[in-house]
TrEMBL record:
Sequence ranges assigned to domain Integral membrane protein YccS N-terminal in this UniProt record: 70-341
Protein name: Uncharacterized protein
Main localization, broad class: membrane
PANTHER family: INNER MEMBRANE PROTEIN YCCS (PTHR30509:SF8), P-HYDROXYBENZOIC ACID EFFLUX PUMP SUBUNIT-RELATED (PTHR30509)
Organism of this sequence: Brumimicrobium oceani
Sorted UniProt keywords: Cell membrane, Membrane, Transmembrane, Transmembrane helix
Family to which this protein belongs: Belongs to the YccS/YhfK family.
Domain of life the protein comes from: Bacteria
Length: 751
């Protein structure tokens, strides 16, 4: 237990989150000390505000985008500060600017995550400007100038430290992705042997899929974009190899999502024959989690003898099953376990590739992704005005959030002025950091902010009682600031606690009565939390179930494209490999969006979770369809397959047509192409007959004494079994999805 806690502490201290906390804190403390030493302390706040306000846009991504984003942020924050300071003598003018700026800046989130952070910096500048005491025009412009210099200083500090430790973000993201992938594989292991109810585990996979895909997108920007610009290095190739292996593992784990009801029928409800396969998944999961720590700690790579033992035990289970049930009765179960075992061996190969990459950093890896191909895998954010126009409608989640936040901020400002609340800007700041576009996240942040502030207040109260030492206050102010920034994305509750500690200790230098600071801080936070919660519930509520239609449409459309790419891969692997991988990426991202949307639905009030069971079934069906397609694609990629048959093409066409007709239910203006497929019943029968013929030939060989099967014959038997079963299953799944979407559309059209 003690060792585990020490490992967690080491991981935290060596993480890029802690490193970023140190960078931001140093960028504030160093100029403060410098201005104090030089005797220009009156200019220090302006400079420090400039550094602090422009730090939010410094998030993982390409260095070029970081610098450009921060420069835009510097220009925006300084202009907004000037605007508010000049308007302050006129209360109504200030109120008008607050409304317009809040709406405009929050609407920038239409351009993506980094743009939303730049908008957030602008909103922070607007709020802080309300308490800046600069009256004359000269003072205002000097204040703005030093804010610009502070922002440029932050860029210099950030870029310099980035050059010293250039791959900190890459390693952190790879570590987090490895850990999430390990957790995902662990849940899949539990699903194999779950005896009672798989629904809770399936819901957990939804959350993990969204998180993993989000990490993949950021890693693509970090690894592929930098590779495209600066060429290859051993370290870059190592990280790229790890990333490619992680993407392949993710596909394999998704592909390794079986028809569990069929498993129960084949192996019995308790699935004892699958215990060894589950144990192998668990062992590989643990290895991935260990490797995630090693990327950060740089410890030695652990041995994988346990995995090798589990792999052998799983392989022997197939022979034991055949011995118990005897062929030909055991063939169906044995082939199912054989396919499962093949997938697990492929996952293990990727785990070994990651181990190899972490060990052999000096050897050139076999990463053959061309620069022209790498560019196609990057999701580029558009910054055209049409993006804003597309969201300028009441049905847009971004538009509603901008309007909601504007009303809440204006209300907080008016409330503070009417009742002359001390430090009323804290209410506005609280609303700004708590109020999110959806109910669930706003509720969690409100709770974390209030609880964190109370925790920080109690700790600060105890420290102030125990000591009146300014040196202690100074040290604790610096430490709490580092921890607040380091935990901002990881644990918002404790980040809020450390922010409160920092504020109390800083105020302790200015005002001797620190208890009043704690009191007002808690009151302002509770008021801000209450305003945020009321706003998300009452003002233009955007319940997730009503925003699901477009996300469902995209997920089904991308699945259909993925299916078509898989069929093309089956026909010609060499010519269609890149097209397949691109379609796979798009389908996985669409799955991530759908999984994240479903998670948000579960966080909405129960009364707003309309038709929850139907939506759960639709989301599950969509995921299962993607898993079945991935299973086909993974098998086709890694095996020498026979030419695609007419019957197989017919089933592909049938599934494509059903998915296309499902798309039409969600968007009547969407154009589709219907493919001729002939008699599907005959096609199914002929495919099953092909498998039956191969089975009978195998039975005849066994009867003649040829018990050992040739590898080519085994692969052909596996192909006939997997392709026919997966395609027939997909026909049924796509039909069920269409029926489910039909009920969904019928229900919500009545609303």
């Amino acid at each position: 237990m003690a060792k585990s806690k020490l490992t967690k502490l080491e991981l935290f201290v060596k993480s890029s989150h802690f490193f970023r906390g140190v960078v931001i804190t140093l960028s504030l403390i160093v100029p403060l000390l410098a201005f104090n030493t030089l005797g220009y302390m009156s200019l220090a706040p302006s400079f420090i505000f400039g550094a602090f306000l422009n730090s939010p846009s410094d998030v993982p991504g390409s260095l070029r985008r970081k610098v450009i984003g921060t420069l835009i942020s510097i220009l925006l924050t300084s202009l907004i500060t000037v605007l508010i300071l000049f308007s302050k003598p006129n209360h109504y003018l200030t109120l008008g600017f607050i409304g317009l700026l809040t709406f405009g800046l929050s609407f920038l989130s239409a351009y993506g995550f980094r743009a939303s952070l730049i908008g957030f910096s602008g909103l922070l500048a607007m709020t802080i400007a309300l308490v800046v005491e600069q009256n004359s025009a000269q003072e205002i412009w000097i204040h703005a100038l030093y804010m610009v210099l502070g922002g440029l200083w932050y860029i210099l500090a950030s870029v310099t430290l980035h050059k010293i430790i250039p791959k900190k973000d890459d390693d952190q993201l790879l570590s987090e992705t490895l850990k999430l992938t390990g957790k995902y594989l662990k849940i899949r292991a539990k699903l194999l042997i779950e005896e009672v109810d798989r629904k809770p585990l399936i819901k957990q996979t939804f959350a993990l899929q969204a998180q993993i895909n989000e990490k993949h997108e950021t890693l693509r920007e970090l690894l592929l974009a930098s590779r495209k610009r600066s060429g290859r290095s051993h370290f870059d190739e190592k990280r790229l190899l790890i990333f490619i292996s992680l993407v392949d593992i993710f596909e394999l784990v998704i592909a390794n999502s079986w028809d569990y009801e069929k498993f129960d029928d084949l192996f019995g409800k308790k699935n004892k024959h699958l215990d060894k396969f589950s144990k192998l998944n668990m062992s590989m999961s643990q290895q991935l989690i260990q490797l995630s720590q090693i990327i950060i700690t740089k410890d030695e790579i652990p041995e994988n003898k346990e995995i090798e033992k589990c792999l052998l035990e799983a392989h022997n289970t197939i022979a034991d099953y055949i011995t118990i049930h005897q062929l030909p009765q055991a063939r169906e179960g044995a082939l199912t376990m054989r396919n499962l075992h093949d997938f697990q061996k492929k996952i293990l190969q990727e785990v070994e590739a990651i181990r190899y990459a972490l060990t052999n950093i000096t050897k050139t890896s076999k990463v053959t992704l061309k620069r022209s191909e790498a560019k196609q895998f990057l999701t580029l954010q558009e910054y055209k005005p049409k993006i804003l126009l597309q969201h300028f409608a009441i049905h847009s989640v971004i538009f509603r959030h901008a309007l909601r936040l504007t009303i809440a901020i204006v209300f907080a400002f008016v409330l503070g002025n009417i009742f002359e609340i001390q430090n009323a800007y804290w209410i506005m700041l609280t609303v700004l950091v708590i109020l999110r576009p959806n109910y669930g996240l706003t509720k969690e942040r409100a709770k974390d902010r209030i609880v964190g502030t109370l925790i920080g207040g109690v700790i600060a109260f105890g420290i102030v009682i125990l000591t009146q030492n300014e040196i202690v206050y100074g040290i604790l102010a610096v430490v709490s600031l580092i921890l607040a920034f380091a935990l901002m994305q990881q644990n918002y509750r404790w980040a809020a606690a450390f922010i409160t500690l920092n504020v109390v200790f800083i105020y302790s230098f200015i005002h001797p009565n620190a208890f009043s600071v704690i009191q007002y801080r808690v009151v302002d936070t509770v008021l801000g939390g209450a305003i945020s919660f009321a706003a998300i519930y009452v003002l233009f509520p955007s319940w997730e179930v009503l925003n699901l239609k477009s996300i469902l449409f995209k997920a089904i459309k991308k699945n259909n494209a993925y299916l078509n790419a898989t069929q093309e891969l089956y026909m010609d692997k060499e010519a269609n490999s890149l097209t397949y991988k691109l379609a796979r990426k798009e389908a996985f991202l669409a799955l991530s969006e759908l999984s994240a949307a479903f998670q948000r639905i579960t966080q909405d009030p129960k009364s707003k979770q309309l038709e929850f069971r139907l939506i759960y079934n639709i989301v599950t069906l969509n995921q299962t369809i993607l898993s079945a397609i991935a299973s086909l694609g993974s098998f086709i990629q890694s095996h020498k397959t026979t030419p695609i048959s007419k019957e197989t093409s017919a089933l592909f066409a049938k599934i494509t047509n059903t998915l296309s007709r499902t798309e039409i239910l969600l968007d009547e203006e969407h154009e589709i192409k219907i493919h001729a497929h002939g008699n599907i019943k005959d096609a199914k029968e002929k495919l099953l007959e092909s498998y039956q013929i191969l089975s009978e030939e195998r039975d005849a060989n066994i009867a003649e004494g040829y018990v050992k099967i040739k590898k080519a014959d085994l692969h052909q038997l596996q192909e006939a079994h997997l392709i026919s079963n997966q395609l027939i299953w997909l026909v049924s799944l796509s039909s069920n999805l269409r029926k489910g979407i039909g009920r969904y559309v019928e229900h919500f059209e009545k609303k």
